[in-house]
Amino acid sequence: MFESIGWLEIFTLLVVALIVIGPERLPGLIEDIRAAIFAARRAIDNAKKELNGELGAEFEEFRKPIEQVASYTRMGPRAAITKALFDGDEEFLDDFDPRKMMQDDPRRPATRPAPKPTPNPTQQQPPNNDGGDSGDGGRPGGFSWADIT
């Protein structure tokens, strides 16, 4: 009933009630609120029993489709599609499962080949810029600060 209310909020309400109402009348007020909550619960339960007793058979017609919709909302998308289209038979959808298709792929080798050792690449020397603003430094295809700015 009070899932969204934390202990800090309840404590704050009690402190405010203690300040506003006073310590003399607070226990009586809490008992009155408790009695009102129990009376409301009893009244709701009695109303449910009366409706189920008088109209129980007629409500069954409405209850079944509502329960079916509620069961669909609790399901995931795969289970809902399977239940609605295939009457709960998941074997049909398993044929289209990509993980299963990859496991059953005959073209795929059973074991992976060992990785080939890669030769160590030689480290390239950074371009040597003499500080001249001649553009490419006299080398064709060289680096130029003019290209950046």
Automatic annotation (TrEMBL):
Where is there biased composition of kind Gly residues? 132-141
Composition bias type Low complexity, residue spans: 121-131
According to the UniProt entry, the coiled-coil residues are none
From the record, give the transmembrane residue ranges: 6-23
> Where, per UniProt, does this protein localize?
Cell membrane; Membrane
Q: Where is the composition biased (Basic and acidic residues)?
A: 96-108
Look up the record and give one Gene Ontology term from the biological process aspect: protein transport by the Tat complex
Family classification: Belongs to the TatB family.
Q: Which HAMAP family match?
A: TatB
* Known partners and oligomeric status: The Tat system comprises two distinct complexes: a TatABC complex, containing multiple copies of TatA, TatB and TatC subunits, and a separate TatA complex, containing only TatA subunits. Substrates initially bind to the TatABC complex, which probably triggers association of the separate TatA complex to form the active translocon.
Q: What does this protein do?
A: Part of the twin-arginine translocation (Tat) system that transports large folded proteins containing a characteristic twin-arginine motif in their signal peptide across membranes. Together with TatC, TatB is part of a receptor directly interacting with Tat signal peptides. TatB may form an oligomeric binding site that transiently accommodates folded Tat precursor proteins before their translocation.
This chain belongs to the protein called: Sec-independent protein translocase protein TatB
The organism is: Corynebacterium testudinoris
- Kindly list the organism's lineage: Bacteria, Bacillati, Actinomycetota, Actinomycetes, Mycobacteriales
